[in-house]
Specification:
InterPro entries: Homeodomain-like_sf, HTH-type_TetR-like_transc_reg, HTH_TetR, Tet_transcr_reg_TetR-rel_C_sf, TetR_C. The structure is a single chain. The chain is mainly alpha-helical. It folds into two domains: 26-72, Arc Repressor Mutant, subunit A; 88-205, Orthogonal Bundle (Tetracycline Repressor, domain 2). Helices cover 72% and strands 3% of the residues. The chain is built from eleven helices and two strands; from the N terminus they run ββααααααααααα. Strands 1-2 form a two-stranded antiparallel sheet. Helix 2 (26-44) packs across helix 3 and helix 6 packs antiparallel against helix 10 (191-205). The longest helix has 28 residues, at 130-157. The chain is elongated, with a radius of gyration of 23 Å. The N and C termini lie far apart (87 Å).
Length: 218
Amino acid sequence: MQEIFQRGKILSTASEAVSRRGRPRSDEAHQAILKAALEEVFAVGFRALGIDVIAAKAGVGKATIYRRWPNKAAVVMDAFLAEVGPGTGFPRAPRAVDRIRMQMEAQSKAFRSKYGVLIKSLLGEAQFDPELAEAFRERWIMPRRRMAREVLEEAIQQGDLREDIDFDAAIDMLYAPIYYRLQIGTGPISEQYVRGIFEQVMSGLGRKEKTATARLKR
């Protein structure tokens, strides 16, 4: 039997050595899994996707995936977030209200891309898959709602918004129309449409004296 030494360990055969060298580890394995999950969910859809398919494409064992994620829904959402998340956060700007507008524009741009098709598909599947619904809510929706609230609080501190606003209602008014158009298809999610939502909501949430001044300037 041919024996091969590798980092102080003896591998019983050459084929075993090749097999171990061929499997990505740690961060490489993590990235390979995310890449495989995203490619496969685009190719076959969420419902037909299996952990075994992701594992085979990533070159890892299923156990490697389950050590990192509880189910395929969590894998797919993290794969989606790895691609879309960095570009849809709240950018820095002197005024918090501008941060909200810029983030809405960035998110709507993502929704106009192939990732919008994926979000629409995942939202549809989530109605019948509790694990996907939880993953979508906890990994995508809720973190962004928390960030949006922080920025709204910043806008209040800067004197641009009223202090008595209902944060949950404000966030719903800003983002629900975008998701509605994505799902129902009543019209394009254009920059003009998103800017209109932003301006109307901010007009209602703004301090009365600032709103009156803005109207006088028109």
